[in-house]
Amino acid sequence: MESIEATTPKYMVYCVMVASLTSLSLGWIMGSPNVPGEVTHNCPTGNARIFSFSFPDCLPMTTYGWAFAVASFGIGGFFGGIGSVYFQSKVGRKRTIMLSNAGFVIGSVIIALSISPAMFIIGRIIVGLSCGMCTMVIPTYIGEISTIRARGAMGCFHPLFIALGIFLTTLIGMFLAYVPYWRLCYALAGLPSLIQMILMISCAESPRWLISMNQIEKARHALQQLRGSADVDREFFEMIQGQVGATAAGSVSSHPMALDDTDDEGENIPVEPGEEGMVYRRPMEQQMTLRALARDPVLRRMTMTLLSIHALQQFMGMSAIVYYSTMVFSITFSQARLVAILATLDTIVNMLMTVAAVALIDRMGRRKLLMISEAGTALFSVVTFLGLFFHQPILLTVGLLCYVAVYSLGMGPIPWILTIDMCPTYASTTIGGLATCLHWIINFVMAFFFPIVLGAIQGFTFLIFAGVSLAALVFTYLYVPETKNRSIESVVREYESRCR
């Protein structure tokens, strides 16, 4: 069997699961301020040291101060995304994932040992650095090691583990939302990263990255590891052809397709003898700068499509719900325990619907699932608004839970999957870096301003989310291609035909 027909080889799935453990830490960081947030910054005893001589009971902050503390990890995320552009190109996807774990461990310890709001914020920024790195490199790694037929499902494991992390920190936060145990809730975020750092040693490097670094034999060996007993000749040829053209691919591949010595545009990268046989002269991934990206009509159009869908994803408001669902429920529910239970239920729905996305995305396709998600998010944002406006607890609960459900089914995982489905290896780092930086800039804006806007206009906030969801629906219908069961190279050719 040819590897392009393979679905889920065991070792490939193992590598995807191990890589996604860092996503668990990311989800934990995102969800940790939600349930224990009140006791973290507004406990009755303030900064008194009643429970411990070493640490204050909590870290008193104003609403603006707490909003900034929660949002501050977005600052780290922005710079972590920039750093990931360099590291994943220079040292590889695998080592960058391992490196990203350091910030989770160090930052989590700093947050747990904080004695002042400033120290808490510094810890959040440090974990944010790792969040930014793994937000970019993990989807890239998963996309580059996955089979074509399972790339959508495998790509969903990144958001699935994020959802699992959010659920676990919310659930555990219910029992640790007391002085001084809230500190433990923040400290646990580093545990999955420690485990992942050890297990990642046993995983393969991305074959596409190895090809871009002229390590052809290592790339072939890694691909064969990831595909088990399947014949990798055709897939390996197409990987090389997509980066450097048919002539270069033919010089290192025995596949019959190599007999055609020109690529679609009639251009090929020259080849020359190297340590591992015939290799092309220079890795194309290092050549695609921002200036080159802006000048290329195909990649420019692709980039604008992806950046737009990432911006719409954030402005639809899910990140704000992850950080502040307890604040939303508290508008109509007065019992703190019930609010915490509803917030936990919210994360369960998020996790279960992400599991559903894993099952559906390679059956229904990205585009259809995305449009269903956007339409549903618009509808249930209005239902949530009605629940808040008329102070109807049941309507609010149904609206918010259904909002989370339909968002998690499509708009949550698919923008990142589209990024790995559409971007050729020689441009994936640059485009992925832009998407990551934009993601974290808007994430910071949403995390900082949501509690302020919610306090000012209450439920009308969700009408804004409904409007953005409708805009996303129209944009997807007009501009987003279907990438189900397609190679990256075929998607690039489609964009080339559109630009002619």
TrEMBL record:
The keyword Transport belongs to this UniProt entry's keyword annotation: yes
Tell me the membrane topology, using the record's own terms: Multi-pass membrane protein
Supply the alphabetized keyword list: Membrane, Transmembrane, Transmembrane helix, Transport
Q: Which residues form the Major facilitator superfamily (MFS) profile domain?
A: 11-484
What PROSITE patterns does UniProt report for this protein, alphabetically? MFS, SUGAR_TRANSPORT_1, SUGAR_TRANSPORT_2
Task: Give the family, as the similarity comment puts it.
Answer: Belongs to the major facilitator superfamily. Sugar transporter (TC 2.A.1.1) family.
What protein is this chain from? General substrate transporter
Species for this entry: Hesseltinella vesiculosa
